[in-house]
Design goal:
The protein is an alpha/beta fold. It has 10 helices and 7 strands. Helix 2 packs parallel to helix 3 and helix 7 crosses helix 10. The two termini are 33 Å apart. It has a 7-stranded mixed beta sheet, sandwiched between helices. The protein has 2 domains: 154 residues, Response regulator (Rossmann fold, 3-Layer(aba) Sandwich); 57 residues, Arc Repressor Mutant, subunit A (Orthogonal Bundle).
């Protein structure tokens, strides 16, 4: 269903990428959700959709940046579904809200749900701490899956957003500090073959310490904490 019109829409895939293993929630636990959108009718529609799910509970709503900060502090949700545009004008003030929420509540999962489908905003949202990014014409079933994935500590992107991350990480975007270098890609390919740091160093004629440095950098850029997760995430992003 199209979230703006209520008309059934084609299903979009949401790609789940493992982000952080810590803070994982039991599958049977209820996920507490706060909705942040400047349009009340949008929040009402989302609430109606989510309240049909037995494991999702909407515990608060907000329509402005200040309201969002206050509601999240009081409700202590597991997931915040956040629009990027919360006031009139061209600003995408949701980015600042995302950054502040993630800094103040490190364990929280922010899922951006917006009309904007720009590569730059996808990357900036992730850099601000968001675990997922989907546009508002996403199928409602996939939206629910994305919320559950974010609650588990994973990442969730619709097809366009995942492609934007691929372009950024592989050098097609404009955020240079987030790109994987050619050497990091070499290390990543050998990681995927199950080689140890020492074996990777021997293959690439670099020291084991240098390999550790590259592994740390690529895991940071892929937003994971384990080698296996780096390979999984890279595979989902089409880098392997």
């Amino acid at each position: 269903m199209n979230l703006r019109t209520g008309v059934p829409a084609g299903t979009r895939d949401v790609t789940g990428l493992v982000r952080r293993p810590q803070g994982r929630r039991p599958r049977s636990a209820v996920v507490r959700v706060v909705l942040v959108d400047d349009h009340a009718i949008m929040r009402q529609g989302l609430r109606a959709i989510l309240e049909r799910e037995g494991d999702l509970q909407v515990v608060g709503e907000a329509g402005t940046p200040d309201e969002a900060i206050a509601v999240v502090a009081g409700a202590r949700p597991h997931v915040v579904v956040l629009d990027l545009k919360l006031t009139s004008g061209p600003q995408t003030d949701g980015l600042q809200v995302c950054r502040r929420l993630c800094e103040t509540h490190p364990g929280i999962g922010v899922l951006v749900l917006t009309t904007f489908a720009e590569d730059r905003l996808v990357v900036e949202s992730v850099q601000a701490g968001a675990r997922g990014y989907v546009v508002k014409d996403v199928d409602t079933t996939e939206l629910v899956r994305a919320i559950r994935a974010v609650a588990r500590g994973e990442s969730a992107f619709d097809a366009h957003s995942a492609s934007a991350m691929v372009r950024s990480l592989s050098g097609g975007g404009h955020q240079d500090r987030e790109r994987l270098t050619e050497r990091e890609l070499d290390v990543l390919r050998l990681l995927a073959r199950g080689l140890s740091n020492r074996a990777i160093g021997a293959q690439l004629y670099i020291s084991e310490t240098t390999v550790k440095f590259h592994v740390g950098n690529l895991m940071r850029k892929l937003m994971v904490s384990r080698r296996a997760e780096a390979v999984y995430a890279a595979t989902k992003l089409g880098l392997l």
